[in-house]
């Protein structure tokens, strides 16, 4: 099972690097998990190389909380207008609601045990 991350209707993972597939949603979306914004900016692994075969490459984004805004930066994918999208901003209340809603939809899905990547999926940025 993979996580699909959409911003303005665009799949961030697929548009950033077509070799990648989003990491397991239970890991990314869990309460307090990697997509949960904090005052300390964090670099979060959101996808891993799947094509042409699984490999070591990872797609990361930087997540930070600034007031009532969640900011994803270090992005690089083509937007609807063809210009490179480098940053996305979300209202905190709406962002947390969407993450919570997506996680709640997983309750009927089988649980996948955490792997060694769990220790690497969130790194505080300096």
Brief overview:
The chain is of the alpha+beta class. The protein is built from three helices and eight strands; from the N terminus they run ββαβαββββαβ. Strands 3, 4, 5, 6, 7 and 8 form a six-stranded antiparallel β-sheet that branches.
Describe this structure in words.
Helices cover 18% and strands 36% of the residues. With 126 residues, the protein is an alpha+beta fold. Strands 3, 4, 5, 6, 7 and 8 form a six-stranded antiparallel beta sheet that branches. It is globular, with a radius of gyration of 14 Å.
| Count of distinct strands | 8
Helix content: 10-25%
Outline the biggest β-sheet. Answer: 6 strands, antiparallel
Range of strand content: 35-45%
How would you classify the quaternary structure?
Answer: single chain
- Spans of 5+ residues with little confidence (pLDDT < 50)? 117-122
CA gyration radius, whole angstroms? 14 Å
Query: What is the distance, rounded to the nearest whole angstrom, between the alpha carbons of the first and last residues?
Result: 32 Å
Mean pLDDT value:
87
Tell me, what's the shape? globular
Number of helices: 3
Task: Give the helix/strand class.
Answer: alpha+beta
- Sequence of secondary-structure elements: EEHEHEEEEHE
Question: Which helices and strands occur, and which strands form pairs?
Answer:
Blueprint: E1 6-7, E2 10-11, H1 12-16, E3 20-22, H2 25-29, E4 42-49, E5 58-66, E6 69-78, E7 84-91, H3 92-104, E8 122-124
List keywords for this structure.
126 residues; alpha+beta; six-stranded antiparallel sheet; two-stranded antiparallel ribbon; 3 helices; 8 strands; globular
């Amino acid at each position: 099972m993979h996580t699909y991350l959409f911003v303005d209707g665009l799949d961030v993972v697929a548009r950033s690097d077509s070799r990648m597939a989003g990491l397991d949603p239970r890991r990314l979306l869990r309460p307090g998990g990697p997509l949960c914004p904090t005052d300390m900016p964090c670099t979060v692994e959101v996808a891993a190389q799947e094509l042409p075969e699984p490999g070591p490459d990872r797609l990361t984004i930087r997540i930070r909380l600034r007031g009532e805004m969640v900011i994803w930066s270090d992005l690089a994918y083509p937007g609807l207008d063809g210009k490179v999208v480098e940053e996305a901003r979300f209202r905190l209340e709406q962002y947390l609601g969407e993450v919570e809603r997506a996680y709640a939809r997983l309750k009927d899905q089988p649980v996948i045990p955490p792997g060694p990547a769990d220790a690497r999926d969130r790194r505080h940025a300096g």
